[in-house]
């Protein structure tokens, strides 16, 4: 699928007002954290390009003033065309926010190999392909900012979340390497690590988990994990997308960004415990949290 700009009458190409504005690209921009981050950057005076796959939602975003691109992060031609559109239109790209992503649940051996590969295509290879496309422009500018939206899942393991957690561990490690490699050109790389976020995902995960492992060796485990999902997403433990987006925007705009931002009470507690406890202790507490022996 090729990138395609969705018609937007709120601007004309390469207007003179672009000369003094910074330019940001946000993927996964039509919902949740990505949409909120795009709108917050717009309010801060950025020229914002929002990328996603669904044209109907992109049109809604365009009505709010975001310049929209139909882009699939598993299609490198689509991403290349999108970046070329931004450079042709705005002449630069200052901020890349990789927010597109999703989660596959189920035991590592139960998840279909094609689903596992797609998990890494969307959560890992897509963001890195965009980095490869924008980094040369940022180097030429002598500055840039990359914010990769990861998850607390990139810090700790979990039962029946191996492919998702594995993709986030990979994103964390790649972000660390990028930070080291790009620093000489004034390009900063930060990772945002939300804990549970208020979305429809918990209910989808519950159904998918039990369906994937139904009748197999992991059926009892899937039932226990599915029951715990609701508990871990109870009020007081989840963050709203806008709360996470504020941190994303801070990472994208502050003068000296941190390398990592944990967001939400569960995320901060998890980071602390991971630093203090050895692996076996972490395993023990994870199993106990699911009421498994």
From TrEMBL:
Pfam families registered for this protein in UniProt: adh_short (PF00106)
Xref: SUPFAM superfamilies: NAD(P)-binding Rossmann-fold domains (SSF51735)
Superkingdom classification of source: Bacteria
Record Gene3D superfamilies: NAD(P)-binding Rossmann-like Domain
Keywords: Oxidoreductase
GO molecular function: oxidoreductase activity
Family recorded in the similarity comment: Belongs to the short-chain dehydrogenases/reductases (SDR) family.
PANTHER family, A to Z: NADPH-DEPENDENT 1-ACYLDIHYDROXYACETONE PHOSPHATE REDUCTASE
Name of the protein this chain belongs to: Oxidoreductase
Organism: Corynebacterium pseudokroppenstedtii
